Amino acid sequence: MLELHGITLATPQRTLIGGLTATVGPGEVLVVMGESGSGKSSLLAFLCGALPAGLAASGSVRVDGREVTDLPTAQRRIGILFQDDLLFPHLSVLENLLFALPAGRDAERRSVAEAALASADLAGYGPRLPHTLSGGQRSRVSVLRALLAQPRALLLDEPFSRLDMALRQRFRAFVFERLRAQGVPAVLVTHDAHDVPPGARVIRLDDEEPAP
Amino acid sequence: MIERRRLLAAATLLPWVGAARAADPAAWERTVRAARGQTVYFNAWAGSDRVNAYLQWAAGEAAQRFGIKLEHVKLGDTAELVKRVRAEKAAGRSTDGSADMGWINGENFLTMKREGLLFGPFAEALPNFALVDVVGKPTTRIDFSEPVEGYEAAWGMAQFTFYGDGRRVAQPPRSLAELLAYAKKNPGRFTYPRPPNFHGTTFLKQVLLETAGDRKPLYAPAPADTATLLAPLWRTLDELHPLLWRQGRQFPASNAVMRQMLADGELHITLTFNPNEAANEIAAKRLPETVISWQHAGGTIGNTHFLAIPFNARSKEGAQVVIDFLQSPLAQARKADIRHWGDPTVLALDKLSAADRALFSQGPAPGSVAQSAPVLPEPHASWVEAIEREWARRYGQ
Amino acid sequence: MGAALRPVSAAARRGWWVPAATFALPLLASLWFALAGALDAGAWVRLVADPALPRALALSAGVGVAATVLSLAITLWLVTHLHGTAAWARIERTLGALLAVPHAAFAIGLALLLMPSGLLLRLAAPLAGWTSPPDVSTVHDPLGMALILGLVLKEVPFLLWNVAAQLRPVAQAAQLRQALLTGQAMGYSAASVWWRVLWPQLLPRLALPLLAVWAYGASVVDMALVLGPTNPPTLAQLAWSWLLDADAAVNAQGAAAALLLAGVVALGALMAVAAVRALRPLLRVRQVRGDRVASGGASRAVAAAVGSGALLYGLALALLAFVSVAGVWRFPALWPQVVSFDAWAGVAASLPVLGHTAGLALASAATGVLLAVAWMETTPAGWDERAAPLVFATMLVPGVMLVAGLYQLMLLLRLDGSLTGLWLAHSLFTAPYALVALAPAYRGFDARYEQTARALGRSRAAFLVRIKWPMLLAPLASAFAVGFAVSVAQYLSTQFVGAGRHATVTTEALTLASGGQRTLLAAYALLQALLPALVFGAAWWLGQRQARRLGLEAR
């Protein structure tokens, strides 16, 4: 469960977000929409614990009831996905997944990672290097990696905008299904209305007040 | 001792009496006329700003008196000149060489003469050669036991000299034994530059001359097996090294470095080839006035430094005119003046007119040698390599 | 990420090999002449028989390895903990200034600090009760530690500058930030993400600068003269003094020694590559182990390290200025007994030399940059790898050997002693440095800009002059500054190819150095540092202004 209370983000010139309050349950998605420069990515950065310089922020963030507002990124258990898949090019697909897993016995970790690959129709792709995969395959691995780290919440910064129409639909469905299955609350930032899953709460940042 | 030296000098003069022509005035006139308007590139070591300043003065005089443009090509080491001339010869450049004059001595002269890199003979045809003290200063004609034969012109005298701070060295050690005693009482305050630096090598030659039973073999070419003849040198060094700066495990790169260490107080005694160096430095306020110079009572090694003309020089006439001027009483007096350079003259003062002699009159300056010692000629050049090689083997790592 | 596409027409451009040949031919000719000197069997026999060889070789290799490893470790550690902080921006700004200080000048300043009669021990003298400088080797120590310190202090800013250059473009900076965040969001500390994810990707791009650091550390002569061991000295110093000797047989021995040293450098590089390749699988296992290590209190140590480094630099340079007026400075006084401005009077007398130095450096730097640009505009990218050994030959082959060969070439061409010959010789040395400084930015330039310009109907020349070069102004200016510094620092080529007739600040400094006058040496060292510093500053300012105007740099 992800709780946001009174999140305010402001530059010296103007207020980007004023008093945003929301609760995102397990498997639910909070969609944040707005034009470029409206502060969508900054919001995610703040939630993640990496507020860019020049921005003032206040408010509280709680994950599973735990206050994380003052914790460093590494301790928040909040994952993040970007437009670029950001798979580490020097590691194989399997190694990328292993990186996300917590420490443990080698054999166990390998089998978990292999199972994840299999569940995404990527069985056998483990030893390959990321650049040998197609865009859609890389995006799927990226999601798998983010989820294998067992995050308590997941932030998605326009993860679909690099993909073409056909891939986009399938990938969207894949992502939302995984989130639901693992019970992870998510905040999705996008500028495309098609990305909104049915029943999700949408917040538009162009408005003065956040929509109820 | 002096008698033997005079006999030796006289003996060497005999073959040359016939050959030594007085400078032919008509030929010299032609040379001076041809030299007008020439540019003379004088390749000389430029490590001392006093020498550089002196050469600037000489350039002014050359322009004014002879219409010659004298350019000082600054070298860090005379070897640069030797290499350049050798490379030019190998490339077939027999005219239009890059250097017209060079400041050389000893080992460099030998190399250049043997490889045919020098123009000459010319030195004895110069007018001012008549004033050079070839009798009292035999090293002006025999350089490192090799006859000069007119391929280089004597410019200045050098004698191995020690100097140090009089406040620390109350009684300057005037022999090797006294030096050893001083080192024992004050360990770590004396050293010598690492051979093959020529000051370092000269110190070794000095020790050898002072400890050798018979000096004659040292003036002949070195034999194949030098072990017995060099044994006294190594015995002395084995005794001396533990008492030296850094316990003889490290050596400074040059006497210039040692001079700086003396100024800082790190060393008590240092060495040089210019007997007036300490006086120079005191006058330039780089050393305190309490510094004194001395030579070993039994005599120290002395030699002459020379000016030579490369075989492929472009302005040979100009070079000869400049060299003749540098040998003139006016130029030599200014050179010997401690206020300007302090390099001893090659001229015989008794051959000069009273007016010219007056140019040289100068009382001793603070820091100059109080009691000069006899000059020991340099051993044969082949001993240098033998000494350096064995030193490197014994102490070089 | 996908590599930028090369314009298909590049390989078909006629005469593409001309710039490369302009650089390669004289270089090859010089190498040929230089190596011919080393092919004398007698020289090798004498070399191997020399008692100082094993120790000198071990010293050169040891100093090189230690300096390279330490510099790399410190650089990685500093970047890991400082990147992204305000301190990093400040450090980036001063890097150019630190790089502009010539190696020899810095070494002299450092020696003035560390030597027995230097500042540090004078400060300690009252406590230790010394009245004379203690008989301890703080510089010229037999293990070369003072030299290693000097090298590390000079190479860390160089490596930092290279890293900063890699990370500065906006695309790179954004990707870096996101990768860091991704890793941290998975529970890793920022430092862990650097060590496991970022450095494995960035280090291969540091291969060339590291090669330069290793080659320099193993074959450095001027810093070794001031700080390094003397009995025996490093092999580089021995080779240098043998090559400068008047005796031809000794010259050949020096050429052989230089060749041996070059071989050691090449061998070391190959061994490093092989070691990395062998270690990579082991490292990867460690990277994906999944253990989350808490970030330690490294920040205080980092701050201390940066502080002391800056202090050492500042002190070294300040001492140069101080000592240049210290006429007589007897131990243990902190203030000189006699303050004299004679040294500066001497410098003032040779001001025309300053002008000549600057003019020559400007001309050869410009030529070097032009040659580098011509190379990269015409030669297909694939040739970069094939040509890399040639480019690096000028850095790996000891300078003395190269100059000896170049001088022979100039003799044949009858260009010796002339300003033209000197300009060409200097350009041969500045070109590879300009190439190395320019290559990352130039090759990484997005090819789509050209495609766009062509599609808009503009000629190639128009594109270059109005789009590409203005966008690359910062790297072009830095490459120019680097070439300028290289030209100013030339001693051997000026003395030989120029037949000693064209004095520069460096030849004045080094010929005076042989006379050992410390005040004059310090004054000239400062002067030697001043010229490149000015140009580096101008280049940096120009680059910053342009980049800000075009929004090219991450803030």
CATH superfamily of the domain at 2-62 and 74-89 and 149-204 in chain A: P-loop containing nucleotide triphosphate hydrolases
CATH architecture of the largest domain in chain C: Orthogonal Bundle
Mean pLDDT over all positions of chain A: 88
What do we call the CATH topology of the domain at 2-62 and 74-89 and 149-204 in chain A? Rossmann fold
For the secondary structure, the number of strands of chain C is: 2
CATH class of the domain at 2-62 and 74-89 and 149-204 in chain A: Alpha Beta
Largest interface: B-C, 61 and 59 residues
| H and E order of chain C | HHHHHHHHHHHHHHEEHHHHHHHHHHH
Commentary on this structure:
The complex is a heterotrimer of chains A (212), B (397) and C (555). Chain A has 212 residues and is α/β, with parallel strands linked by helices. In chain A, 30% of the residues lie in helices and 25% in strands. In chain A, helix 2 runs parallel beside helix 4 (135-148) and helix 4 (135-148) packs parallel to helix 5 (165-182). The longest helix of chain A has 18 residues, at 165-182. The two termini of chain A are 19 Å apart. Chain B has two domains: 2-158 and 303-359, D-Maltodextrin-Binding Protein, domain 2; 161-301 and 375-395, D-Maltodextrin-Binding Protein, domain 2 (3-Layer(aba) Sandwich), CATH 3.40.190.10. Chain B has 14 helices and eleven strands. In chain B, strands 1, 2, 3, 6, 10 and 11 form a six-stranded mixed sheet that branches. Mean pLDDT of chain B is 87; it is low at 1-22. Chain C has helices at residues 17-38, 41-49, 53-82, 86-100, 103-114, 119-128, 145-167, 170-185, 190-202, 207-219, 222-227, 235-243, 248-287, 298-323, 342-349, 351-378, 382-396, 399-412, 419-443, 447-455, 460-471, 473-488, 492-496, 505-513, 518-550, and strands at residues 326-328, 338-339. Mean pLDDT of chain C is 84; it is low at 8-12. Helix content of chain C is 75%, strand content 1%. With 555 residues, chain C is mainly α.
